């Protein structure tokens, strides 16, 4: 686990346009190259073909946040061409993203008073998932991992499926952002 590198390595060029991030319920946004987010329902601006795309979902006032987060992520994967998957490997990559989103949001619900925001960032190589919450705890896989026991598998799953993951805290601000990165399908 890396807790010191808040951003993934590699090319982070300008973002191409994407479909709107609106999902039933939460306030969703598209942003171009990490810039100012567009209002919900307004597509992001166009950019270079090899750029990154960002979507944000606010959980403020929402219930059923885990299925909401999965639906929002599924819509983004469709807009970004991950779904529908043409091969079994591509389908598995998309399912891994959905599972990790579920685990991160569930952990925020169970251990951090609920999530505040989900941010998805995608480029040609990596998808980065970020869940922001107001919790003070430090997520970590349980050791030793006991596969036969119920519960306690969330961060173990995240650790196994992701290229990297970590926690970012802003000094003087309550809460944290738990992030995870997965490789884009070939």
TrEMBL record:
Residues 28-48 have a biased composition (Low complexity). Residues 69-179 form the Histidine kinase/HSP90-like ATPase domain. Signal peptide: none annotated. Gene3D superfamilies: Histidine kinase-like ATPase, C-terminal domain. GO terms for molecular function: ATP binding. Residues 1-48 are annotated as: Disordered. Keywords: ATP-binding, Kinase, Nucleotide-binding, Serine/threonine-protein kinase, Transferase. InterPro entries: Anti-sigma-factor_SerPK, HATPase_C_sf, HATPase_dom. Residues 15-27 have a biased composition (Gly residues). It comes from the Bacteria. This is ATP-binding protein. It comes from Streptomyces thermocarboxydovorans.
């Amino acid at each position: 686990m890396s807790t010191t590198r808040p951003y993934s390595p590699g090319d982070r060029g300008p973002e191409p346009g994407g479909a709107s991030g609106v999902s039933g319920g939460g306030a969703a946004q598209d942003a171009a190259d990490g810039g100012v987010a567009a209002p919900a329902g307004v597509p992001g601006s166009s950019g270079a073909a090899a750029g990154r795309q960002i979507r944000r979902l606010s959980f403020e006032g929402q219930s059923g946040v885990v299925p909401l987060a999965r639906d929002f992520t599924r819509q983004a994967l469709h807009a970004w061409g991950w779904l529908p998957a043409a091969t079994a490997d591509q389908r598995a990559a998309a399912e891994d993203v959905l599972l990790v989103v579920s685990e991160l949001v569930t952990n925020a619900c169970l251990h951090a008073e609920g999530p505040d925001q989900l941010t998805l960032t995608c480029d040609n190589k990596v998808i980065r998932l970020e869940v922001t919450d107001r919790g003070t705890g430090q997520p970590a896989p349980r050791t030793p991992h006991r596969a036969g026991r119920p519960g306690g598998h969330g961060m173990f799953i995240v650790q196994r499926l992701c290229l990297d993951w970590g926690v970012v805290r802003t000094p003087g601000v309550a809460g944290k952002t738990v992030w995870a990165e997965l490789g884009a399908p070939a």
